[in-house]
Structure formats: C-alpha cells, structure tokens
Design a protein that fits this description.
The model has no long low-confidence stretch (mean pLDDT about 85). This protein has a 3-stranded antiparallel beta sheet, with no helix packed on it. Helix content is about 50%, strand content about 10%.
C-alpha cells in the first residue's frame, strides 16, 4: 500500500474515532495509544503537501498496522458503550440487536 493511501486511511480513522460517543472510551484508547491530538487537522480528509512528513510515523509499516488494530478495538468498544455521534446523527445504543441502524438524535 502506498503512503498516500495510508495517509487517507489515517485521516479517515482519526475522523471516525473522534465521533465515538463515549468520550472516556475515545480518550483511553485513541488519544492514549493512537493519533496524538493535533497531528491531523480535524475534518481534513484531503492529502496535503505537508502530510507525508507530518504523518510519516503513522504510515510506517509497524505503527500503521498497530493503528489499524487499535481502531478496530475502538469500534468494538464504541459499539458497547454509546456508538458514534456526528452532527446530530447517532448510532443506536450499543448492545441492541440492530446495532447497524442509525437514528437522528433528539
């Protein structure tokens, strides 16, 4: 996989990780072991000229594999305790049979 594709994946994982509804889960997993706060511009999913240098650590083979594993663990935990929330859209409460359904939050 080339570095540009990995940068896109790091940015996508960062964006989705920040939508975890339980802030403690987000902080304990992603901020503690994943992408450091401020390393990725929030909401910027485009690959910019400075990204290869800024995100070089995260796109190296070992750290990238670790980051992907951490992201999957985060999604499992998020499903258990509050799902995802973004711009007034949230997933159903974790643990329900239909965990893939989405509702508009009130």
């Amino acid at each position: 996989m080339n570095q540009i594709t990995r940068i896109k994946m790091v940015k996508a994982m960062e964006f989705i990780a920040r939508q975890v509804n339980n802030e403690e889960t987000f902080m304990d997993l992603w901020l503690a072991e994943g992408v450091a706060d401020g390393d990725v511009r929030l909401g910027d999913l485009q690959v910019n000229e400075e990204d290869p240098d800024l995100l070089e650590y995260y796109t190296a083979d070992g750290p990238f594999a670790d980051l992907m594993g951490l992201f999957l663990r985060l999604m499992i935990e998020a499903e258990k305790d509050g799902g995802l929330y973004c711009d007034d859209v949230c997933s159903d409460e974790g643990g329900e049979d239909d965990a893939a359904a989405w509702d508009v939050c009130e």
